Amino acid sequence: KPEKERSKRMILYHATAERNLADIREQGIKGNYDGVYLADSAELATSFIFLRGETRVIVFEIDVPDNLVQESFDHNEQWFKTQLQLDTCRCFTYPHDIPVENLHKVSLWER
User: pLDDT tier at 75 (50, 70, 90 boundaries)?
Assistant: First the structure.
């Protein structure tokens, strides 16, 4: 792809419980009323799922058009940065389902 076209996409991360992997590989990621939740790092994305008590978390690296991504402020960024010892805690929403072809670098994280 030409550099100009690549610059219009963002690489973000989506995490989910391992039990959702088969459905996502078949159907992509389905959003809820807010869209699909994304984070600026795999560490941050997994943290939200680990906080729910999950012990095996799947993380997808996702590329999406940057003009459709909105920063989300539905969490306390400072609290998460302190608790998770992260330098950044930026989260985003994407208003559409994410098709399988936009999912990259699937990885399993365990706690």
Answer: low
The Cβ-side half-sphere exposure at 83, using a 13 Å CA radius, reads: 12
Q: How far apart are CA 55 and CA 86, in angstroms?
A: 20
Which of 88, 93, 65, 64 lies closest to 78, judged by CA?
88
Per-residue model confidence (pLDDT) at position 73: 73
φ, ψ of residue 30 to 5 degrees: the values are -95, 130
pLDDT digits (tens, 9 = 90+) for 27-57: 999 998 889 999 999 988 998 899 889 999 9
Nearest one of 68, 65, 48, 46 to 57, comparing CA atoms:
46
CA angle in degrees (0–180, nearest 5) for 110-64-8: 135
